């Protein structure tokens, strides 16, 4: 079976894991790694003992015309995604992009249509959608064992990292929104968000050298000022998602909280499904329980905790595998296509609108296809 030639743009915190996974995948041939920092490339070369034929470059322009590159994997700041993805697709390359697809809904739709026109695959690395716990959680919800679904909740907090290009909403919320949408099988129809700013008040954020270097057009640019609130980039955000069935999910996001939480729950009339990443030995459980009515009293009954068995695989490896599979069979990912990425950006954009307007409910429009 022919290997797919892959170039990876960005070898930083997340990009290095993509290098590792594509390097070890039997259906991939790592052709090039691009990063503006020579020291980062040197570390990657030594860490993974890269073969001499793997091209190491500090800019995309210098390697973009290599005929052996069939697919481009983008792990650069979100502000660079649109330009890089568009250029790769126009060259006839398949693209796997780190989330979010872009920071603008119209750009997302343009890229999705371009991928269709070019007959190339566009996939977004929403890694949680490939997590064994999320896969199992969807099965549990669909089985009906939780009873009638009532509401959901999630908390994603830590002391950093603090981003300067997007707020905590855009940095953190996409994970839990993606999980809720996946498990429920539908997107929300209305959203609300409120937030607080403590660290970064309204200012203009200049595009860093990384973003300039990875811009294949060689143009210096400035990220348009889009503060999440009139005060600046929100450190704390509270999100409410309302789904067509009336189910609501509440998400707490903060990068200014030393109490690290990665916890999501879906509550039903017969129990609560809990995905807690901080409990490594049992990340997915069902807390069973319900009420029995005795006259005017409600008596708890059937309470017990069930630990769910999970498959053992690295979610990111599954992302890379599914991307290569989509390329091989010319079939869009059913889990995390460009359209799924566009839908999540659409939801985040509506949440940003609500956040900027002090928490007013915003109806989520359906995306044209």
Question: Could you give a short description of this structure?
Answer:
The chain is α/β, with parallel strands linked by helices. Helices cover 31% and strands 29% of the residues.
Order of helices and strands: EHEHEEHEHEHEHEEHEEEEEEEHHE
Radius of gyration: 21 Å
- Write out the strand line-up for the largest beta sheet, numbering strands in chain order: 16-15-14-13-7-12-11-8-17
Summarize model confidence as the mean pLDDT: 92
- Taken from the alpha-carbon principal axes, the silhouette is globular
Structural notes for this entry:
It contains 9 helices and 17 strands. It has helices at 15-24, 38-47, 78-90, 105-118, 132-143, 168-184, 209-214, 315-329, 338-356, and strands at 4-9, 28-34, 55-57, 71-74, 94-98, 122-125, 149-159, 190-196, 200-201, 232-233, 236-242, 248-254, 256-268, 271-276, 284-294, 297-307, 362-363. Strands 16-15-14-13-7-12-11-8-17 form a 9-stranded mixed sheet. The two termini are 34 Å apart. Residues 204-225 have low confidence and may be disordered.
List keywords for this structure.
17 strands, six-stranded parallel sheet, alpha/beta, 369 residues, nine-stranded mixed sheet, 31% helix, 9 helices
Helix/strand layout:
Blueprint: E1 4-9, H1 15-24, E2 28-34, H2 38-47, E3 55-57, E4 71-74, H3 78-90, E5 94-98, H4 105-118, E6 122-125, H5 132-143, E7 149-159, H6 168-184, E8 190-196, E9 200-201, H7 209-214, E10 232-233, E11 236-242, E12 248-254, E13 256-268, E14 271-276, E15 284-294, E16 297-307, H8 315-329, H9 338-356, E17 362-363
Parallel strand pairs: 1-2, 1-4, 2-3, 4-5, 5-6, 7-12
Antiparallel strand pairs: 7-13, 8-11, 8-17, 9-10, 11-12, 13-14, 14-15, 15-16
Helix pairs in contact: 3-4, 4-9, 5-6, 6-9
């Amino acid at each position: 079976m022919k290997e797919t030639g892959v170039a990876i743009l960005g070898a930083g915190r997340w990009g290095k894991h993509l290098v590792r996974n594509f390097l070890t995948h039997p259906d991939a041939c790592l052709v090039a790694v691009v990063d503006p920092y020579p020291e980062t490339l040197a570390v990657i070369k030594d860490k993974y003992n890269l073969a001499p034929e793997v091209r190491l470059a500090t800019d995309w322009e210098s390697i973009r015309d290599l005929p052996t590159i069939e697919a481009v994997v983008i792990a650069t700041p979100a502000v660079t995604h649109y330009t890089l993805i568009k250029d790769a697709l126009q060259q006839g390359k398949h693209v796997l992009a780190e989330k979010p697809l872009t920071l603008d809904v119209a750009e997302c739709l343009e890229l999705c249509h371009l991928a269709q026109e070019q007959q190339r695959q566009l996939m977004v690395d929403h890694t949680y959608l490939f997590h064994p716990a999320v896969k199992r959680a969807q099965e549990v919800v669909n089985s009906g064992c939780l009873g009638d679904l009532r509401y959901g909740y999630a908390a994603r907090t830590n002391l950093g990292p603090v981003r300067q290009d997007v707020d905590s909403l855009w940095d953190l919320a996409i994970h839990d929104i993606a999980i809720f949408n996946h498990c429920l099988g539908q997107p929300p129809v209305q959203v609300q968000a409120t937030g607080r700013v403590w660290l970064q008040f309204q200012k203009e954020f200049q595009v860093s050298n990384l973003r300039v270097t990875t811009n294949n057009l060689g143009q210096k640019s400035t990220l348009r000022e889009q503060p999440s609130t009139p005060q600046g980039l929100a450190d704390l955000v509270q999100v409410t998602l309302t789904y067509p069935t009336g189910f609501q999910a509440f998400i707490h996001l903060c990068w200014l909280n030393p109490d690290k939480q990665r916890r999501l729950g879906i509550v039903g009339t017969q129990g609560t499904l809990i995905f807690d990443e901080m409990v490594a030995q049992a990340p997915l459980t069902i807390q069973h329980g319900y009420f029995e009515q005795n006259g005017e009293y409600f008596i708890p009954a059937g309470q017990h905790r069930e630990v769910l068995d999970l498959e053992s695989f690295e979610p990111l490896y599954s992302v890379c595998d599914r991307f290569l599979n989509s390329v091989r069979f010319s079939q869009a990912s059913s889990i995390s296509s460009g359209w799924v990425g566009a839908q999540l950006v659409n939801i985040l954009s509506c949440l940003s609108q609500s956040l900027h307007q002090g928490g007013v409910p915003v109806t989520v429009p359906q995306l044209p296809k």
